[in-house]
Design goal:
Helix content: 25-40%
Distance between the termini: 54 Å
Organism: Eragrostis curvula (weeping love grass)
Protein name: CCT domain-containing protein
Family: Belongs to the CONSTANS family.
Keywords: Metal-binding, Nucleus, Repeat, Zinc, Zinc-finger
GO molecular function: zinc ion binding
Mean pLDDT: 51
Strand order of the largest sheet: 2-1-3
Radius of gyration: 22 Å
Low-confidence stretches: 117-349, 360-367
Oligomer: single chain
DNA sequence: TGGGTTCTCACGGCCACAGCCCGGA
DNA sequence: TGTCCGGGCTGTGGCCGTGAGAACC
């Protein structure tokens, strides 16, 4: 480390905020991200110990350093001495966690500075959400129905996932490149503050212990799907196209197909693209509690890579590293898929599901990519008259902040 | 079956202004 | 060659007007 905090310029920076593209010390992190509800939603993670400029994705347990994707790959490439180093993924968080909470989140960090609770951040840890992608010290409270838990569970039910984990443990490039855990399915997955905290059992993720899918809650998934949209910018356009290509109806038709084995389901899937096959992964019965049927992770992964191909040059490595999509695509069920035995639609619920989907799609702006978050933030709070911006200090009929009128 | 009316939806323009971009000093 | 300055341009969200298409009579 050694980089100074971008905010105060005084303290050593420790965390990286992708939304702000800033390295911050913990104190400034709390100050900056307790300012308002929007800033509290920024997901942060540790700073890479090696380059001190990128968000860390994994923790090398041997070298005891946090590494970003590039440094990880560079340092643990096949053939290198460190290729076999055991690594753990590093959690993201949002909200305003205290130093104690961060200590629990990052147990491997011994020198977390003490940070006083932020009075503006009334909920503390309850406000905080942890993006669990591999490591946490929290016990896995059974029944905590978190999306990420489900995502992890989905992975852990797949033998391929074991391969994946092993590949993470071993070489990060070269011969193992095909099995290389993409940023999308390997690393920290930010979660909106509204998403429940994620309990975690390290053994579960790292060693593919059995996991069950009880308490799968569609509401959680809905939340996550919103997050996915919110966080993903461009790449979700692919997702829309994905649905558009196959058509949402085709998806529901697929879901209504006789609940046979996976092969039968494959037969009724639209087979026009790999992207659609990602859908097939999403419709996999894994989340129904059938641990005997697993998502073909390699298939899903290849689909993921297609999805990510939509990232433009403007997308930073961090965009890849956010990879909420992994949570969504790998979690076994589409976000609007209702819970219930066999995942079937009771009479009439198909229409409601379709309606919900359409409403969500309507709310979304798939074709819009925010290029300048600062401008968006300003526009979000700018006063208007009949939708038009007004000069500062002039009469307005709409204030996004308080929805009051000046006259 | 064709014409008229109504409704829904999509799209673009408008507004202010911070910050980006780029040319010139 | 690098830095600074200033002017022009860009992009942001909500509302409204307009046109296209669907639905109905």
């Amino acid at each position: 480390m050694g980089a100074q905090c971008d905010f105060c310029g005084d303290q050593r920076s420790m965390v990286y905020c992708r939304s702000d593209a800033a390295s911050l010390c913990l104190s400034c992190d709390r100050n900056v991200h307790s300012a308002n509800a929007l800033s509290r939603r920024h997901t942060r993670t540790l700073l890479c110990d090696r380059c001190t400029s990128q968000p860390a994705m994994v923790r090398c347990l041997v070298e005891n350093v946090s590494l970003c994707q590039n440094c990880d790959w560079n340092g643990h490439s096949a053939g290198s001495e460190a290729a076999g180093h055991k690594r753990q993924t590093i959690n993201c968080y949002s909200g305003c966690p205290s130093s104690a909470e961060l200590s629990r989140l990052w147990s491997f960090i011994s020198d977390i500075p003490n940070v006083a609770p932020e009075p503006n951040c009334e909920q503390g840890i309850s406000m905080m959400s942890i993006s669990d992608s591999g490591v946490s010290n929290q016990d896995n409270a059974a029944g905590d129905n978190s999306l990420l838990d489900i995502a992890s569970a989905t992975l852990t039910n797949d033998l391929d996932t074991c391969d994946r984990v092993q590949s993470l443990e071993g070489s990060s490039s070269g011969a193992g490149v095909n099995l290389l855990p993409t940023a999308s399915d390997q690393i920290a997955r930010p979660v909106d503050s509204t998403t429940p905290k994620v309990p975690y059992t390290p053994e579960k993720d790292m060693f593919c212990k059995d996991t069950i899918y009880e308490d799968f809650c569609v509401d959680d998934v809905d939340l996550a799907f919103e997050n996915y949209e919110e966080l993903f910018g461009t790449s979700h356009i692919q997702t829309e196209q994905l649905f558009d290509d196959a058509g949402i109806d085709s998806y529901f038709e697929m879901k209504e197909a006789p609940a046979g084995n996976a092969d039968e389901q494959k037969l009724v899937q639209p087979a026009n693209s790999n992207a659609v096959s990602a859908d097939s992964g999403m419709s996999n019965p894994v989340a129904k509690g059938d641990s005997s049927v697993c998502i073909p992770v390699r298939q899903a992964r290849s689909s993921l890579s297609l999805s990510f191909s939509g990232l433009t040059g403007e997308s930073s490595a961090g965009d890849h590293q956010d990879c909420v999509v992994s949570s969504v695509l790998l979690m076994g069920e589409p976000p609007w898929h209702p819970p219930g035995p066999e995942g079937s639609y009771p009479g009439g619920s198909r229409d409601s599901a379709l309606t919900r989907y359409k409403e969500k799609k309507k709310r979304r702006k798939f074709d819009k990519k925010i290029r300048y978050a600062s401008r968006k933030a300003r526009a979000d709070v700018r006063k208007r008259v009949k939708g038009r911006f007004v000069k500062a200090g002039e009469a307005y009929d709409y204030d996004p902040l308080c929805e009051t009128r000046s006259y």
